[in-house]
Amino acid sequence: PLAPQVKNKAPAEVQITAEQLLREAKERELELLPPPPQQKITDVEELNDYKLRKRKTFEDNIRKNRTVISNWIKYAQWEESLKEIQRARSIYERALDVDYRNVTLWLKYAEMEMKNRQVNHARNIWDRAITTLPRVNQFWYKYTYMEEMLGNVAGSRQVFERWMEWQPEEQAWHSYINFELRYKEVDRARSIYERYILFTALVLVHPDVKNWIKYARFEEKHSYFAHARKVYERAVEFFGEEHMDEHLYVAFAKFEENQKEFERVRVIYKYALDRIPKQDAQNLFKNYTIFEKKFGDRRGIEDIIVSKRRFQYEEEVKANPHNYDAWFDYLRLVESDTDAETVREVYERAIANVPPIQEKRHWKRYIYLWINYALYEELEAKASERTRQVYQACLELLPHKKFTFAKMWLLYAQFEIRQKNLPLARRALGTSIGKCPKNKLFKGYIELELQLREFDRCRKLYEKFLEFAPENCTSWIKFAELETILGDIDRARAIYELAIGQPRLDMPEVLWKSYIDFEIEQEEYEKTRNLYRRLLQRTQHVKVWISFAQFELSAGREERLPRCRQIYEEANKAMRSCEEKEERVMLLESWRSFEDEFGTDATKERIDKLMPEKIKKRRKLQAEDGSDAGWEEYYDYIFPEDTANQPNLKLLAMAKLWKKQQQESEAAAMDPDKDIDESQT
């Protein structure tokens, strides 16, 4: 017969993958399997048949793979569940012939014997296990635990002794000791500790300090203090000076502290600190400090802390004399503890490490040594003359022809003012401006004179400042604001005129805005308009036009709306030739918001006609090496009066109309009943 031909060869809407088919088949495989029937055994013959089938299954599994121990264990556990202990024992023995190194097999075998109260059989199995695999600690733990649970303390001790002959790990010794302590056999426990320590000393199985400490604490716990002290002394002698450990001395000292032997404690700590390297004795020193805080006087505590930290800082500054952060920490330490002469000595040592390169970035941390030195002399030592000498020495050291630190001059001037020595302060600031003029120095000097209400000096300083930095708009603005506060409006206006006449300014927009705000505050609206016109001669920025229009709107007169609208008209005409179309759109948006609030329907319609149409375009991109980098989409604005783009607009409109007609014709073709109804109608 011919195979049926598939007429519709299109892909199905819902696609099914091979992975999904396999997964569903696997899931349904479990569902299709019927549950095993429940078998009810009614007589002995059926029971024997059942046993025969199960044993045959187990034997077949074992025959297939003898090395899978789990099959042996399942077989033996099944026989055990039938109370066939002899058969289960036979299976375990057969399994041991296959793999006698399997730990789980021995454990299951012994647990079966213990579970069925076959104590001698269990002992026999444990003996065989520890003889065959003596390094498996679990056998020893289980064996000793079984004997102890049976109350056979002597047998458990005998097992422990056999175990100790193998020199096991530390936990095994402690288990033996804890076993003896449970039965109050302190002497036996001590003898075990001695044997353990002897092993560590001679055989070097566990040459660790903590074993000696545990032995000593054991003696201390049972109130054998002389024995405990002897153990500590033996440990110190055993480890000697080559293998000294701070933990041993800390434990020894705490033991003596508990015995109220404070002099012994100090001797132990000092002996250890003299022989152990500083970097390895942090915990030792910490405990020594805590001990002195508890039982020593204040001076002793401070000496310990300061001496340790001073030693650390000395090592750091010796290794790197130009590590100024280490000098700062060192100076902070000596300032808090020692006398003024010692502090001055450390400061002199610190400031002697002048940076080798005359670059400001290398001096930024160094200069704070001088600042802290001067502040210490002034605030802590109360020595004004020495403070002045420190400031003067620092200012002489700085290479002012290459760079300077304005903060140093200002701090010196402020110090002289605090000493009520105004001429010296002015002389210092004048010298700084003469040697190395900086904006910060001028600002600090002017602020000082303003606080002193010396306005004539402020004017002179502003004049010098503007001669030094005529491009600094902030200085012009502050100077004009000063004159405004003093009520001299003409001087302020003249300053603004000089400022906007400068050929180079750092922030001209801020200066013009300040000048315009100044005229608005003085309610000189005509002058403000003139300022806007002068500014528009320099720049045609859209924000200037918008600000001009908003100014006319806020002028508060009757003709404010026509004036504002006129400004928008002028701005729109001026920005027709602007390449940045977004700025013109921003202007029209501002104009439309103005008309929405204050305009009529005619003006609103007019501004709507001026709004551009936003279209999407594509342009070609080029990489840095000149190769093609693809195309990118961007938005462009086409204004109504843009005659160059009128043909394109017309073509775009015709394309949209054609697309609309196509959509209508497709809709009509999809719904013929609608056409019949319309024709009948």
Automatic annotation (TrEMBL):
Compartments (UniProt record): Nucleus speckle
Region (Disordered): 661-681
Pre-mRNA-splicing factor Syf1/CRNKL1-like C-terminal HAT-repeats domain span: 70-362, 378-533
GO biological process, one term: spliceosomal complex assembly
GO cellular component, one term: post-mRNA release spliceosomal complex
Keywords: mRNA processing, mRNA splicing, Nucleus, Phosphoprotein, Repeat, Spliceosome
Primary localization class, coarse: nucleus
Coiled coil regions, renumbered to chain: none
Superkingdom, natural source: Eukaryota
PANTHER family assigned: CROOKED NECK-LIKE PROTEIN 1, PRE-MRNA SPLICING FACTOR
Biological role: Involved in pre-mRNA splicing process. As a component of the minor spliceosome, involved in the splicing of U12-type introns in pre-mRNAs.
UniProt family annotation: Belongs to the crooked-neck family.
Official protein name in the record: Crooked neck-like protein 1
Native organism: Mohoua ochrocephala
